[in-house]
From TrEMBL:
It is a peripheral membrane protein. GO terms for cellular component: cell division site; cytoplasmic side of plasma membrane. Keywords: Cell cycle, Cell division, Cell membrane, Membrane. GO terms for biological process: FtsZ-dependent cytokinesis. It comes from Nitratireductor pacificus pht-3B. The gene is ftsA. This is Cell division protein FtsA. InterPro entries: ATPase_NBD, Cell_div_FtsA, FtsA/MreB, SHS2_FtsA. PANTHER family: CELL DIVISION PROTEIN FTSA, CELL DIVISION PROTEIN FTSA-RELATED. Belongs to the FtsA/MreB family. Cell division protein that is involved in the assembly of the Z ring. May serve as a membrane anchor for the Z ring.
């Protein structure tokens, strides 16, 4: 067993058992946004049905990862007066709610409002102030918001599949929870999740999720670049990318030849022979552009120095040959390919980087305790499974107490 799974990672049980899995090609979604309700609904139904058949049970509600809506991170602080009494859970709830109110906006929703540290009077850096005595309790918070409309359309699509949304979790947060080991999260690291339609970035420091961002570019954009550059059909371009694609040129690329059926050509026609170097240059241009944008976003976040030399790549598009090496050259840092950690019982097919966000959703209930759900009285997404006494917190407690 790999060393990361051989020792207990904090707040991850390693004992959650996956009893059913289903996956479908993404339909009706572009850059994380629902663009065709019917096609997206069909893909959700098929994936859930496959998981239900394997598990032998019926699914009623989902934890859903979200990368749409122009994710935006803010760091805020809030304080409440204690009057000299001991800090109780209700006091923590009050100060978290005070902080979350500062992140409210009429057109945006609070996806996460996370405590990154507490202060009691002049004492800073307190992880859990419960039971301590003081006059003023303060909290530093990471507020992550998103445009409301894409989130509501995603919930609508899931509701149309006769399912409810238990909680929405930002994709970069979920991926970081499953792909980073404790030392990386503690010392400071960035997790870059390269999906089909989006690339998301998360930064963890001192064991906390402190920054997130997203860009609407992913593996499907590489495929479409090949379609345009080689005049190939979409399915052929995807196959070529997976089987022969690379983010780095090699000395043999000019000699190696790939066969391409031109768009609109009959199957009986002879395919066009193209040097693999042509395909590699098309792929490399898009990959370098995406990584450069991610690097600049990390730098502008103010956490570039905190991240140090630790970058973890994950997501399905990160599995492209040569991508970690290309990222090392661009970032000038230690870059590794991340895979899901912290959950045992994964089938072999789900142990790759493409499943990092999905596994992170299984870990999320265990870390949701000090999170305020922000706005009330609006979308059901933000009312039900709170981190302050709701069903999700009870699930997290059960996992920690029973495993």
């Amino acid at each position: 067993m790999p060393s990361e799974e051989g020792r207990a990672l904090r707040q991850r049980t390693h004992r959650v058992k996956v009893i059913g899995i289903g996956h479908q090609q993404s339909q009706g979604v572009k850059s994380g946004v629902i663009v065709d309700l019917d096609r997206a609904e069909e893909a959700i139904r098929l994936a859930v049905d496959a998981a239900e058949r394997m598990a032998g049970l019926t699914v009623e509600s989902l934890l859903v990862n979200v990368s749409a809506g122009r994710l935006k991170s803010e760091t805020i602080s809030a304080s409440i007066n204690l009057g000299g009494h001991e800090v109780a859970r209700s006091d923590i709830d009050r100060v978290l709610a005070a902080g979350a109110r500062q992140g409210l906006d009429t057109e945006r929703e609070v996806v996460h409002s996370l405590a990154t540290g507490f202060s009691l009077d002049a004492e800073r850096g307190i992880r859990d102030p419960r039971g301590m005595v003081g006059s003023e309790l303060s909290v530093a918070m990471h507020i992550l918001t998103a445009d409301a409309a894409p989130l509501r359309n995603l919930e609508l699509c899931i509701n149309r599949s006769h399912l409810s949304v238990e909680r929405m979790v930002a994709t970069p947060y979920a991926s970081g929870l499953s792909a980073l080991v404790d030392d990386e999260a503690q010392m400071g690291a960035a997790c870059i999740d390269m999906g089909g339609g989006t690339t998301t970035i998360s930064v963890f420091a001192d064991g906390k999720f402190v920054f997130a961002d997203a860009l609407p570019v992913g593996g499907s954009h590489v495929t479409m670049d090949l379609v345009r550059g080689l005049s190939a059909r979409v399915e052929d371009a995807e196959r070529l990318k997976v089987m022969h694609g690379s983010a780095l040129l090699s000395s043999s690329d000019d000699r190696d030849i790939v066969s391409i059926h031109p768009m609109g050509a009959d199957q009986s026609e002879q395919p066009i022979q193209v040097p693999r170097a042509v395909m590699t240059r098309i792929i490399r241009a898009r990959i370098e552009e995406t990584l450069e944008i991610a690097r600049d976003k990390i730098h502008r976040s103010g956490y570039g120095g905190l991240v140090g030399r630790r970058v973890v790549l994950t997501g399905g598009a990160s599995q492209l040959v040569g991508l970690p090496e290309a990222a090392r050259r661009l970032f000038g840092r230690n870059v590794r390919l991340g895979r899901p950690l912290g959950v045992a019982g994964l089938p072999e097919a789900a142990k790759g980087a493409a499943f990092a966000a999905s596994v992170g959703l299984l870990i999320y209930p265990q870390v949701a305790e000090f999170e305020n759900r922000g706005r009330s009285g609006k979308s059901g997404i933000f009312n039900r499974a709170t981190g302050t006494g709701g069903r999700l917190q009870r699930v997290g407690h059960w996992l920690r107490n029973n495993f």
